[in-house]
Design a protein that fits this description.
mainly alpha; Alpha-Beta Plaits; two-stranded antiparallel ribbon; 5 helices; 2 strands; 51% helix
């Protein structure tokens, strides 16, 4: 698909070179290149049937890079409505996906990660602290704090029972409440 488009593009450029060649040596070299490209076009395999390939790329930067590479190569990346944001689906021939697109992605992703790491460390060094290295590694854990041993053991006091809380509203409280309000309390003896 894209390989054929590249070959046709080269063919046009080489034909322009043949037409604009100034010397017979340039013309011969351009005609030889033209013959090689035409041979590739004639013997090129029929394009594979497109397949739907699903890629799960969790990192935002890497996913943006992959989507941009797909669009640059004439593909339409998409994701279904119920799929996670990290999923990108592409329809293309298998040999193109596994060969060209994936190789481009892996090499550019490594460069992108390296660049982002450099930029992040530079910002941390400039704005936060000059030493942005990893934490130091120690061989063994810190020793436990020393124990303080005493020979005298104080005698244990028996736990004292707490008195039960008084209910705030009881029969006696009602009598006192009525006396305060001026109402008499009737009691039977």
């Amino acid at each position: 698909m894209v390989a054929l488009a590249d070959l046709r593009e080269r063919l046009k450029k080489i034909e322009a070179l043949v037409e604009g060649a100034g010397t017979p040596a340039e013309r011969d070299a351009a005609e030889a290149a033209l013959a090689r490209v035409r041979a590739k076009l004639d013997t090129s395999e029929p394009p594979d049937e497109p397949i739907e390939q699903r890629f799960e790329i969790v990192d935002d930067w890497s996913r943006h890079l992959f989507v941009a590479l797909c669009r640059r190569n004439g593909l339409q990346p998409y994701r279904r409505a119920n799929e996670d944001r990290g999923v990108v689906t592409v329809r293309a021939p298998r040999n193109f996906l596994e060969g060209t697109l994936w190789r481009q992605y892996v090499s550019l992703d490594a460069e992108l990660r390296s660049y982002l790491n450099e930029v992040s460390l530079r910002i941390i060094r400039d704005e936060v602290h000059a030493d942005a290295s990893d934490a130091h590694e120690i061989q063994e854990a810190l020793p436990p704090p020393p124990l303080e041993l005493t020979l005298e053991v104080p005698p244990e006091e028996p736990p004292q029972a707490k008195p039960a809380p008084k209910p705030w509203f009881g029969f006696g409280s009602v009598i006192r409440f009525k006396r305060r309000t001026g109402r008499g309390v009737r009691t039977r003896h």
